[in-house]
Design brief:
The protein is an alpha/beta fold and 146 residues long. It contains 8 helices and 5 strands.
Length: 146
């Protein structure tokens, strides 16, 4: 089941890339079902905040804290400080990260606050990000605030 949801995150990342954006995708899973999916749409929407995880939260719509406390968030890339803050705010107890070699986000902060963080070092996630960073370093640097 884990592979199914990571693959859904990867599909979201690829959709973002096809749209001319940054290939990072995420899904939020509650009781074995995806309740929110998204991909980085900063470029497409001219947004400052639509990272993959934030888009997944937005697309999940209004959920109670009780629902979020029973969710797992899957993301293709280690979550940045903003996305980690949303994970903490909504009480997501577990995240599955596709890879953290191209970018190491706030995993230690999440762990220090009790979030179970599992990193897979998935080859598809790694290859997608490495190729993107090589081809569009300026866009990548903009996305991570460099």
């Amino acid at each position: 089941m884990k592979a199914e949801f990571l693959n859904a995150s990867i599909a979201e990342a690829r959709l973002g890339l096809q749209e001319g954006g940054i290939p990072i995708g995420s899904v939020i899973v509650h009781q074995g079902k995806i309740i929110g999916r998204g991909h980085n749409r900063r470029v497409q929407k001219g947004s400052t905040v639509l990272h993959g995880e934030m888009d997944a939260f937005e697309n999940a719509g209004r959920q109670t804290a009780k629902v979020y406390r029973k969710c797992t968030l899957f993301t293709t890339l280690s979550p940045c400080p903003m996305c980690s803050g949303a994970i903490l705010l909504y009480g997501i107890p577990k995240i599955i990260v596709g890879e953290n070699q191209t970018f190491l986000g706030e995993e230690e902060l999440l762990r220090s606050r009790g979030v179970d963080v599992e990193v897979l070092q998935n080859k598809d996630c790694l290859e997608m990000m490495r190729q993107f960073i090589q081809e569009k370093p300026e866009l990548w640097n903009e996305d991570i605030g460099v």
